[in-house]
Design a protein that fits this description.
Number of helices: 32
Helix content: 25-40%
Radius of gyration: 36 Å
Structural class: alpha+beta
């Protein structure tokens, strides 16, 4: 076998999602570039497969997800996003016969043309998988709209809908049609597989017989959901109770678009991917694929050995092979010895020597996200493993019709092809040895389906070969050969083989039925449809060796096995006559199981497959190491001469060298392998792929995840051994440097902070460490130049291709950063970086790795993804480590006593990041106050204050888009951090980049490879939710409710939207605490949704788009007010509907802030007066009241404070400044009533020291209740306040600066040439917080804190103030201006409009600096 990744441009450097082979040998691929490409596949002189581009088919409008040829090859079906399903037919043979150059500029016309478009799936229904009926008369399409549609084609150019399967509740990602044309199997992300069968006819023999002879397109409407495969029992029931169950399949969190099942070519077996296996409630959950026997849907007959990554696709080779009984005998000799080595008592008898007792052998491949594993039906152990072929997840597999090639597609933009030598997989079964029912199927296929001449001539290679051989007077040999033909009658077999297409066996034609004596009786051969001859499935003649198989999961008990082999009447099959009920036997394997050592209870170093029949004397057979003879081991010496007495055919094969080309366009990373399979990463240069040998060990622990003290080298679990009992990794295809050592280091190693593991994971870690050491040392072998390696690997069919992808080396510093990250990251994030390295995306790699995500006064906030400049489990852990180190130095007592409070919102990975932070704290012995539910951001500072915590962490990105997340830090004073604390934490982070070993706390295990554990089982972790929430609402009602409960009950109805955030339950409780009627909910937006599916920006400031559903809910309920919180509920917005026009008006943050400030101040004074009168004081006590606002907010608050005689203070933008300033004033004896900033953030000073959208909503609802009780509206109330305190006209906006560094050029220009006037109005003073200059002050120095380089300048004009500021959390350059003219409202509006126009034309000049104006909904 030779496999290589072909380094050409397959689909414009876009992911390849599907591959398939035509019966004549052509390969077709579909990808994200919206095209279908046709390729010729040829074997080169070196034995590797080469491809030559034939043509491209461009008709799709979106990504192509699946391509499938019909069984006869006369049609091609393709599907894509947006519900696209297209049918293609061969074009004019004359136009397609010209020879094509590989990706030549003068590419010829397509050899296929679009025939029809099938319209049935909606625009949101991306079609992920296709399958043809065996007779080619019907097509099934599976879509993410949770439906499977059946189409009747019958060779016509058009197709009509024949049926619809609508039982699934989630994305349908795979579909497969039974070769016998009786079942359709679908697999979905709802964790189920559904088996659809033909409905039994109502009555009458005639209708029943015709049901199985009619084309599938006509019987598709009769399919019904007969079985749902979803769960399986774990272990035996105790005390009469039902046993615990476990889902069979993974949910939608599997990182793939596909889960593609496969039927065996004889229809006896069904392999289902995306399986999960858990032996018991306490056991480890493993990824697997389940194998079902035809008609036995109660339980799978076996599961494949556990894989570290989910299995996404399965495909059977279409060729049947002769059984290798000599090897089977050798296996039976070895299995008793394995039991004698101290294996598990259960495992020693849990598996039969042959899991499938079939009269022939079948080969199939399953693809995990990163590897392809080959099996055959004579052993549960892998035949071979192909690893490290791709840097991103595998998407599809396809076998050629002759079984010589296996094509693999991947999201890394490349395809691989494995080429097999003649008889390498086995000896093809001759036609005279085929089972009777299969022979009859082939005969039926010959009569029913003839390969169309147009399809045969559509391939240039076939046309050319036919012409050449015709000139020589020889016949053309068909490309598809399912079995080896008789020497005397090759043509008789070749015809049905060619007709069968990619699936060799075209069933649904002939069968055997069980006679009265239980012996199979040949059924009548099928003729035409008019003949209406009875056809039923035929059982494969087989017996149970030794009488029975021991019960275990995946196996049928002995009694059930005997029943399965007898002509029992429990199979689902239509009834002919009551007196003579004829029921077919199971077509498929006998019961068997696969033992996985990771679920055994006793030590074992081999797979325990019991021998059937009489037990022979134990004989130890020591496999010969791959690569040459090795020194005898202690175990081999103890075995003595018996090791050499292996019977002929049962001894291990002679070692062979498996050679393949380099993997991918770049050298494999020098870290623990991305694939979970054993790996020896290669240095740059030419590489040879060879088997990886293993050391022998004296003892191996039976438990997955740990090794015994006597272990000399990492050994795989028994289920990971090859069929010759050689460790399976000895046959793995793994890239290594030419001349490099091929042995693994002694003992188990680990990379980063992952726990040392046994089996495959340990081998991968050890290999990764060895590769890293090799990279740091001089190469021990001469290296081929990159140029020669690149030229040799990209040369296909002896041509130089102008469009071939030519790899270029990454910059040295960037390559080092990529290697460092790949060594550090053990999660799926490795694949992101590896894929970028493979594509040599220097720009993206530089953005991800060229700098660290900056820790500032807002903590962290950025895009999620892999890399040091992204939010991921590594940056979160490193940040928490630095924070803890800083706390240990500056707040040791509070840290020891109060610990750290941690909360999180509903964004993607927020819970995981919070658990990682909690695990870091627990690792340092710090108490963790971890909220158990999604909470609003204000609950974290509340917890810090109430519980005396040293710090608080809130995982949120507030109102940023869904791709972002953040990490906000509160200090021990319950305020956000400010300098110099932020700089100190940032410095501590840089000193603690080495990852700590963490305890397994829930989501924290995801990045560490640890088993998940309930975090609250840890002694240092507790849930503060109930205590914090109760005290929060008590203080809210006691300090900020100014009206009676009865008065508030008459408040106007309010509509509410949480914008897919966490605010709904907490706002409802606040309304209840105030006695307010519950709001009308915008249902579609009031539950957490990390994708923010109904809004482009989850921010009520971003235009009316965020308000649409709230407005609709309000209008439906007759409400005139609408409230909104942002996703983490720390901001609050209000809108009111005008009763006259019906139009909605959204109030700005400045307007809401002024109304709240006046309300709180007025009611506070009235309350104080009432309390003083009750105490007999006669007047309210004198107290210093204060309010605060940020420097970019409206000065109306200053006017209110001035007129009411209270203190007003101005701070920098952000509640980190407002909160800390409030604490400072409180220490001076002031009572801070209120603070706000224009970005709809409001702080109720008597409750906490951070913005709070929940308390602001409750207080404002009471304010609105008072206004409406007086017969007014909010709009009228606002105008009254303006008349009282001043007609302030405020304007704000922003320009998009991507990247944010573009804002720097704007400020540099303004500082080098300060404007003397703006919009025709003179500038009286300037305050620059990047230089510390404030010309309005007597000394010319800024009063507010400033830092060199800060991007914030304020211009003071006669009746206006204008500020430019670069956002610290978003890629925006913002402006704020306010005008207040004594001439009145009209003059203020005119001045504000003039200045707003001048901001763009005179100050920012966005076109000159590459800034963009925002798109407002």
């Amino acid at each position: 076998m030779r496999a290589k990744t072909l380094q050409i441009v397959w689909h414009a450097k876009e992911p390849v999602y599907s591959v398939d082979f035509h019966p004549n040998g052509q390969l077709v691929t579909g990808g994200a570039d919206k095209e279908i490409k046709v390729w010729e596949v040829e074997r080169g002189e070196d034995g590797y497969a080469n491809v030559r581009h034939v043509c491209s088919l461009a008709a799709h409008l979106s990504t192509v997800n699946c391509v499938r040829f019909s069984p006869t090859g006369s049609q091609l079906a393709s599907s894509g996003d947006g519900g696209e399903v297209l049918l293609w037919e061969p074009a004019d043979p004359a136009a397609a016969a010209a020879q094509r150059g590989n990706l030549a500029e003068d590419e010829g016309e397509a050899s296929w043309r679009r025939a029809a478009a099938l319209k049935g799936h909606g625009r949101e229904g991306d079609v992920m998988d296709l399958c043809w009926a065996p007779d080619g008369s019907a097509l099934a399409t599976a879509s993410i709209d949770s439906e499977v549609m059946l189409w009747a084609t019958d060779g016509r150019r058009a197709a009509k809908q024949a049926g619809r399967l609508v039982n699934h509740k989630h994305f349908v990602q795979g579909v497969a049609w039974d070769p016998a044309q009786q079942y359709v199997v679908t697999q979905s992300a709802d964790r189920t597989c559904r088996v659809y069968a033909l409905k039994p006819p109502a009555s009458g023999r005639k209708s029943k017989v015709s049901q199985y002879l009619l084309p599938a397109g006509e019987t598709a409407k009769d399919l019904y959901c007969a079985h749902t495969l979803s769960k399986r029992p774990m272990g035996a029931a105790e005390g009469g109770a039902k046993p615990a169950t476990h889902p069979l399949f993974a949910d939608e969190r599997v990182n793939t678009f596909f889960r593609r099942p496969a039927w065996s070519p004889d229809g006896s077996l069904l392999v289902l991917p995306a399986g999960l296996y858990k032996p018991s409630a306490e056991g480890k959950e493993l990824n697997t694929a389940y194998v079902y026997a035809r008609g036995k849907w109660a339980a799978p007959i076996m599961h494949l050995p556990g894989h570290p990554k989910p299995i996404v696709v399965a495909r059977f080779c279409p060729v049947l092979f002769e059984r290798d009984d000599g090897k089977a005998a050798g296996q039976q000799e070895q299995q008793p010895e394995a039991a004698c080595d101290g294996g598990s008592e259960e495992g020693s008898t849990a598996s039969a020597a042959h899991p499938f007792d079939l009269p022939y052998k079948m080969v199939f491949a399953v693809a995990t996200l990163d590897s392809v594993v080959l099996y055959d039906t004579q052993s549960p152990l892998p035949l071979a493993v192909l690893g490290h072929l791709h840097y991103d997840s595998i998407t599809d597999l396809a076998w050629s019709s002759d079984g010589q090639y296996l094509a693999i597609s991947s999201r890394d933009c490349y395809c691989s092809i494995a080429a097999f030598d003649a008889a390498e997989l086995g000896t093809p079964l001759t036609a005279d040895r085929l089972p009777a029912h299969i022979s009859k199927r082939l005969e039926a296929a010959q009569r029913r389906a003839e390969l169309p001449k147009a399809a045969a001539a559509a391939t240039p290679a076939v046309a050319k070969a036919a012409a050449a051989q015709a000139a020589a007077g020889t016949a053309v040999k068909p490309a598809a050969t399912p079995v080896a033909a008789k020497p005397t009658d090759s043509a008789a077999v070749a015809a049905p083989a060619a007709a069968s297409g990619a699936a060799v066996l075209v069933p649904g034609s002939a069968a055997q039925v069980a006679g009265a004596d239980g012996q199979p009786v040949a059924a009548a051969q099928p003729g035409s449809v008019a003949g209406r001859k009875r056809i039923q499935p035929e059982p494969v003649a087989a017996t149970v060796s030794g009488g029975a198989a021991a019960p275990a999961f995946g196996a049928i008990a002995a009694a059930e096995a005997a029943q399965a082999a007898a002509p029992a009447g429990e199979q689902h099959q239509p009834v002919a006559k009551k007196p003579k009920r004829i029921t077919p036997e199971v077509v498929g394997p006998l019961p068997a199981v696969v033992v996985d050592s990771r679920q055994c209870s006793e030590p074992s170093s081999r797979s325990e497959l019991p021998a059937a029949g009489p037990t022979k004397p134990p004989r130890r057979i020591v496999p010969e190491p791959i690569g040459g003879p090795a020194a005898p081991t202690a175990t081999a010496a103890a075995a003595g001469s018996s090791a050499a007495a292996a019977p002929s055919g049962g001894a291990p094969k002679q070692p062979r060298r498996i050679i393949a080309e380099p993997v991918g366009p770049m050298p494999a990373p020098a870290s623990a392998a991305k694939s979970s399979l054993p790996a020896e990463s290669a240095a740059s240069g030419k590489r040879r792929i060879t088997p990886t040998p293993l050391h022998t060990a004296e003892a191996v622990s039976q438990q997955f995840g740990c090794a015994t003290a006597q272990e000399q080298a990492a050994q795989p679990a028994p289920s990971e051994l090859s069929r010759d009992c050689v460790p399976a990794s000895g046959r793995r295809i793994t890239p290594i440097p030419v001349g490099a050592a091929q042995t693994l280091p002694q003992g188990e190693e680990r990379t980063a902070t992952a726990v040392a593991r046994g089996g495959i994971a340990a081998l991968a870690a050890a290999a990764g460490k060895q590769a890293a050491q090799q990279r740091s040392q001089p190469a021990s072998a001469p290296q081929t130049s990159k140029k020669s390696s690149r030229n040799s690997s990209s040369r296909l069919s002896g041509r130089t291709h102008r469009r071939c992808y030519t790899p270029k080396a990454l910059p040295a510093d960037l390559q080092v950063l990529a290697d460092q990250w790949l060594q550090l990251d053990s999660s799926d994030g490795r694949e992101e970086i590896a894929a970028l390295v493979a594509k040599e995306d220097v720009t993206e790699l530089q953005d991800r790795l060229g700098q660290r995500l900056q820790f500032g006064t807002a903590g962290l906030r950025g895009l999620m993804g892999a890399g040091s400049n992204r939010m991921n489990h590594i940056t979160v852990q490193q940040t928490t480590q630095g924070l803890l180190r800083y706390l240990q130095q500056h707040e040791p007592q509070r840290l020891a006593e109060g610990g750290v409070a941690i909360g999180y919102d509903g964004r993607h990975r927020s819970r995981e990041f919070a658990h990682i932070a909690a695990a870091c704290c627990a690792a340092q012995g710090v108490r963790v106050r971890l909220f158990s539910q999604l909470v609003p951001t204000p609950f974290v500072p509340a917890a810090v204050e109430q519980l005396g915590c040293a710090a608080g962490i809130m995982v949120t990105a507030s109102h940023n888009p869904a791709a972002y997340n953040g990490y906000k830090v509160y200090w021990s004073n319950a305020c956000q951090i400010i300098p110099p604390v932020d700089a100190g934490i940032a410095a501590a982070i840089e000193q603690e980049l080495a990852l700590w070993a963490l305890p397994p706390l829930g989501g924290a295990s995801a990045g560490q490879g640890l088993p998940a554990e309930d975090p609250y089982q840890h002694p240092l972790v507790d849930d503060p939710l109930e205590q914090v929430a109760d005290q929060y609402y008590r203080r809210l009602a006691a300090r900020l409710r100014f009206r009676g409960m009865r008065d508030n009950a008459a408040a106007p109805r309010v509509a509410y939207t949480a914008l897919h955030g966490v605010g709904t339950p907490w706002l409802l409780r606040a309304f209840q605490a105030f006695g307010l009627p519950p709001p009308v909910l915008a249902e579609a937006q009031c539950s957490p949704d990390p994708d923010f599916s109904t809004v482009s920006f989850p921010n009520p400031e971003e235009g009316k788009g965020a308000w649409l559903l709230a407005f609709a809910a309000a209008e439906a309920a007759g409400a005139t007010l609408a409230f909104a919180n942002d996703p983490d509920a720390d901001r609050f917005a209000v809108a009111e509907r005008d009763a006259g026009t019906g139009q909605w008006r959204t109030f700005s943050g400045n307007e809401i802030g002024a109304m709240l400030a006046e309300w709180v101040l007025r009611n506070h004074r009235e309350l104080q007066l009432v309390e003083s009168m009750g105490l007999g004081l006669g007047q309210a006590p004198q107290e210093r009241l204060a309010v605060l606002s940020s420097t970019v907010s409206s000065r109306m608050l200053a006017a209110i404070a001035h007129k009411e005689g209270i203190h007003w203070a101005e701070t920098l933008t952000g509640f980190k400044w407002l909160g800390n300033e409030a604490l400072k004033l409180e220490k001076q004896g002031c009572t801070v009533l209120f603070a706000f900033e224009e970005a709809i953030g409001f702080m109720m000073g008597q409750l906490e020291h951070d913005k709070d959208g929940i308390s602001a909503a409750a207080v404002f609802a009471e304010l609105a209740a008072d206004v409406y009780a007086r017969g007014s509206t909010l709009a009228t109330h606002w105008q009254r306040l303006r008349q009282q305190y001043g007609t302030f006209e405020f304007r704000s906006g922003y320009f998009v600066a991507t990247p944010p560094s573009k804002s720097v050029a704007v400020f540099e220009r303004l500082r080098s040439a300060p404007p003397a006037c703006i919009g025709g109005h003179a500038v009286r003073a300037v305050r620059d917080l990047g230089t510390g200059v404030d010309t309005s002050q007597p000394d010319g120095q800024a009063v507010l804190p400033w830092q060199p380089g800060d991007l914030m300048i304020t211009y003071y004009l006669e009746d206006a103030v204008l500020t430019l500021r670069a956002s610290g959390t978003e890629p925006k350059l913002k402006y704020y201006l306010e005008a207040c003219c004594e001439a009145g409202e009209a003059a203020s509006q005119q001045l504000a409009s003039q200045l707003e126009a001048a901001v763009a034309s005179e100050l920012v000049q966005p076109e000159q600096h590459g800034l963009a104006r925002p798109q407002v909904e």
